Amino acid sequence: QVHLEESGGGLVQPGGSLRLSCAASENIFRYTMAWYRLAPGKERELVATITNDGRTWNKDVAKGRFTISRDKAQNTLYLEMNTLKPEDTAVYYCHAESLENLVGFWGPGTQVTVSS
Q1: Which of 99, 100, 76, 54 is nearest to 3 (CA)?
Q2: What digits encode the pLDDT tens for the residues 65-107?
Q3: Is pLDDT above 90 for 16?
Q4: What are phi and psi of 84, to 5 degrees?
Q5: How far is residue 106's CA from residue 111's CA, in Å, rounded to a whole number?
Q6: Of all residues in the chain, what percent are helix, strand and coil, respectively (each to 5)?
Q7: Do the Cβ atoms of 3 and 24 come closer than 8 Å?
Q8: 58/62 Cα distance (integer angstroms)
Q9: Is residue 97 classed as helix, strand or coil in its secondary structure?
Q10: Which residues pair with 12 in a beta bridge?
Q11: Distance between CA atoms of 43 and 57, rounded to whole angstroms?
Q12: pLDDT in tens, 52-62
């Protein structure tokens, strides 16, 4: 099974930027990769996905501000977040769904706080 580890979270002012990383223990091209987030008092929501053949999808709240990408050589998934808003405050999770058997794996999450 793949092991995932997120990094790059932190405290940022409104309008600022962060880049989240998710390091995987094996080839991420064997998985559909995604970023989710969980905000206080809310349900976990899907933010962005990237398929093994590179197709991307962003949730409406992320369109124009967030970009999902990956590095094959580093087995790393990224989420570039710009023009951050206080409502983007959440724990951000990396998720990998196996193309072989659709089993999903989660990282432990990284906290993003947008506040002045």
Answers
A1: 76
A2: 999 999 989 999 999 999 999 999 999 999 999 998 899 999 9
A3: yes
A4: -65, 145
A5: 15
A6: 10, 50, 40
A7: yes
A8: 6
A9: strand
A10: 114
A11: 20
A12: 999 999 888 88
Q: Which two tokens stand for residue 20?
A: 């989240």
- What is the per-residue pLDDT for 36? 97
Sequence letter at residue 116: S
Q: Cα separation of 4 and 1, whole Å?
A: 10
Calculate ∠ Cα 90-4-58, nearest 5°: 50
4, 65 in Cβ contact below 8 A?
no
| Dist CA 79 CA 75 (whole Å) | 14
Structure tokens of 76?
């790393």
CB 53 within 8 A of CB 40: no
Q: How far apart are CA 38 and CA 24, in angstroms?
A: 21
Residue 75: phi, psi to the nearest 5?
A: 50, 45
d(C-alpha 31, C-alpha 94), whole Å: 12
Q: Which two tokens stand for residue 109?
A: 């999450």
DSSP 86: G
